[in-house]
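Intended use. Records such as the acid phosphatase entry shown here are meant for training and evaluating sequence-to-structure methods. They are not intended to support clinical decisions.
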Amino acid sequence: MQPVISNVPIMVIQGNHEFEEQIHNKTFVSYSSRFAFPSEESGSVSTMYYSFNAGGIHFIMLGAYTSFLKSGDQYKWLEKDLASVDREVTPWLVATWHPPWYSTYKAHYREAECMRVEMEDLLYQYGVDIVFNGHVHAYERSNRVYNYTLDPCGPVYITIGDGGNREDMAIPHADEPGNCPNPTSTPDKIINGGKFCGFNFTSGPAKGQFCWDRQPDYSAIRESSFGHGILEVISISRALK
């Protein structure tokens, strides 16, 4: 990455591979040391979450591997940051973090459910337009969705974790026969201490189940491939991905 990141402006957010537990239980030391973060400028006290403006977009970078509970610092910071956004200046509101909330692949299926439970209402309330995630080594774009239900006011979620890796692509989908994972296997111990939040759906076509039995309505397109994406903002109401 060095030839690229030494010449091209880049903003980063931590993922599971940056955890790197060290002596005295320190984590994310390399991540926090190697990059520059506008944390102080955006009112954050941590490199794990911050925000910045670029053109007509306000970007919110969230940390899935630090506390995201409503009682925690990150959530309180997020409330203040969202409330301060002037949509006349930055009409687009984009959020990003590593593990996706809306992914239909078997790999990492509903792994970040606890984060979704804590934060989704807040992002919905302030009208976040687009969410970018990685983690799952494939591409998937959602329809506008909120709480697993199609909603014209919800964000579009884009998983773009297919930039190349040594772990191969994600191919099986959780909604295919025999692929629905055991719910107890889905939490990640470094997300909220491995707490389980992925209960069966209580409404909709998958009511009573942990997985859908077909491609969910909120999933617009999914593709197992290597690649990257470009977001081009055309106007205050139109963008191309």
